[in-house]
Amino acid sequence: MDYKTTVTNFGELYGEFYEQGMIVVFNDNAPGELAELSALHTAAKLDKDVRPGDTVLLGNKKYTVSAVGKEANYTLRKMGHCTFVFTGAETAELDGHIVLKGEGMPEIKAGDPFEIYFK
Fold it and tell me: What's the domain range around 32?
């Protein structure tokens, strides 16, 4: 089953990470210090591991997963957390990164979808 959730809010420091080419996501019940840097979303159940070749929808833009850090599936499953990096690289620099390939970064807002489609 695909992973489907909705963006609910943004922390005060979200823009600083966005400007560096990253989007940090957390379930909307994240502790304050983590919520500050994140795009928050409704909690959803992750039934499968995210793998290269899967598709991520953020707002109205689709991306292909090109790499997954070794802790990203664990933290996405437990806390709705990972960091999306938009470099298209074939390896993740950090364990919590999911690397995406596509055109530019999405401009997401509250109410937008955050979904993962497994191949």
Answer: 3-117
Token pair in block for residue 102: 């596509």
- For 30-94, the DSSP string reads --HHHHTTSEEE------S---TT-EEEETTEEEEEEEE-TTHHHHHHHHS-EEEE-S--SS-SS
Give the CATH number of the domain where residue 48 resides.
2.40.33.40
Give how many domains the chain has, as a whole number.
Answer: 1
Q: What is the pLDDT along the chain (119 residues), one digit of tens a residue?
A: 799 999 999 999 999 999 999 999 999 999 989 999 999 999 999 999 999 999 999 999 999 999 999 999 999 999 999 999 999 999 999 999 999 999 999 999 999 999 999 99
